[in-house]
Specification:
This protein is an all-alpha fold. It has 19 helices and no strands. The radius of gyration is 27 Å and the shape is elongated. The two termini are 48 Å apart.
Length: 377
């Protein structure tokens, strides 16, 4: 199969998206709400300014929004309470945000329940508490909030604050996925791929990966490309593999940039081009991907798609070697022994060859034995 067999790795992959998603969502809420308030002001809403209860605001925009919504929120208007929470969240006044979210959540406002769960999850304005996060996510999830359903699925999958259950994880992912939640679609696809919580099905995994990929989900586009490359869940197609790798690569996914570089170097699914291979390898290499750094070193060493340079080859081998890439460590050891692109050093040759050999690199192990014999004579 194209990817790993351990679902725990899949959950780590999904969890890695959460921080970025949360930051983007927070900024989006702030921007949309600011625009909404400005539109009300421009229209002359006639709201009575009320400074009472807005002293906690740190910014002028918070003051303006608070003065508009606070009287309604104080009167128990559930929507106004929720918007007060958003106002304070955008102002980074987290304790005040929690206060207003809680008021709305306890009245059954699904959005506020989700936001309160998120505050407990991150320990913002309240002591971090996974159990409380799960409890509020569940309330929102049962009202159909896709983000809450997704996060509840994550908690079941990893066993955070609830009894670990892949069946429950898959069930909640499905609810969110059917509403078009891209990350949930990825989670459900991962579970179908390895058969945890659901019956294993490469075809169903492919279906859900495609749904997420078609929404522009970059990592799904990369994974979909890999499935087309090996014919997993789809008829094998280098052209489709390259197309999906490109979509993900253009969104900055380093692994996709590397795979697209390989496609160009080998002329699979695209017209062969060493120059394009180098360009994509470089993009991935500059993001720290060791495989791409190694391939870029090879291209410099042979002069494929770039002006030949032993010094550049050594520089890229070194970057990959420092990331633990065994082939790069072995070649760097050879470069030091021969003094190619770097000052000759038996000590450095031994150092890098030993690192590669310790990882089980057979050529490095053979070379190291010969080098040890040479040094002992």
């Amino acid at each position: 199969m194209f990817r790993c067999q351990s679902l725990s790795v899949g959950f780590l992959l999904i969890l890695s998206f959460i921080a970025l998603f949360g930051v983007v969502l927070m900024h989006l809420r702030s921007v949309l709400f600011s625009l909404f308030f400005l539109s009300l002001s421009a229209a002359g809403s006639g709201a009575v300014p009320d400074q009472i209860g807005c002293d906690a605001c740190l910014s002028e925009s918070c003051q303006k929004s608070c003065r508009y919504w606070h009287p309604l929120a104080q009167d128990g208007d559930i929507g106004a309470q929720f918007l007060m929470g958003i106002t304070y969240l955008s102002d980074q006044s987290y304790e005040q945000a929690v206060t207003w979210y809680r008021k709305a959540a306890e009245q059954g406002h699904a959005g506020a329940q989700y936001e309160l769960g998120f505050m407990y999850l991150n320990g913002q304005g309240v002591k971090q508490n996974d159990e409380q996060a799960a409890a509020w996510f569940r309330k929102a999830a049962e009202q159909g909030v896709a983000d809450a359903q997704y996060r509840l699925g994550l908690m079941y999958g990893s066993g955070i604050s609830v009894k670990q259950s892949y069946v429950q994880a898959a069930a909640w992912f499905r609810k969110a996925a059917e509403q078009g939640h891209a990350d949930a679609q990825v989670g459900l696809a991962l579970m179908y791929e390895v058969g945890q919580g659901v019956k294993q099905s490469g075809e169903q995994a492919a279906v859900w990966f495609r749904k997420a990929a078609e929404q522009g989900h970059a990592n799904s586009q990369y994974l979909l490309g890999g499935m087309y490359e090996v014919g997993q869940g789809f008829k094998q197609s280098d052209e489709q593999a390259a197309a999906w790798f490109r979509k993900a690569a253009e969104q900055g996914v380093a692994d996709a940039q590397f795979r697209l570089g390989l496609m160009y170097e080998r002329g699979r699914g695209v017209k062969q081009s060493d120059e394009q291979a180098v360009a994509w390898y470089r993009k991935a290499a500059e993001q720290g991907l060791a495989d791409a750094q190694f391939r870029l070193g090879l291209m410099y060493g042979s002069g494929q798609g770039v002006k030949q340079s032993d010094e550049q080859a050594v520089a890229w081998y070194r970057k990959a070697a420092e990331e633990g890439h065994a082939n790069a460590q072995h070649l760097l050891g050879l470069m030091y022994f021969e003094g190619i692109g770097v000052e000759k050093s038996i000590e450095q040759s031994f150092y890098w060859s030993r690192k590669a050999a310790n990882q089980g690199h057979e050529d490095a192990q053979k070379y190291l034995k010969n080098l040890e014999k040479l040094l002992s004579t």
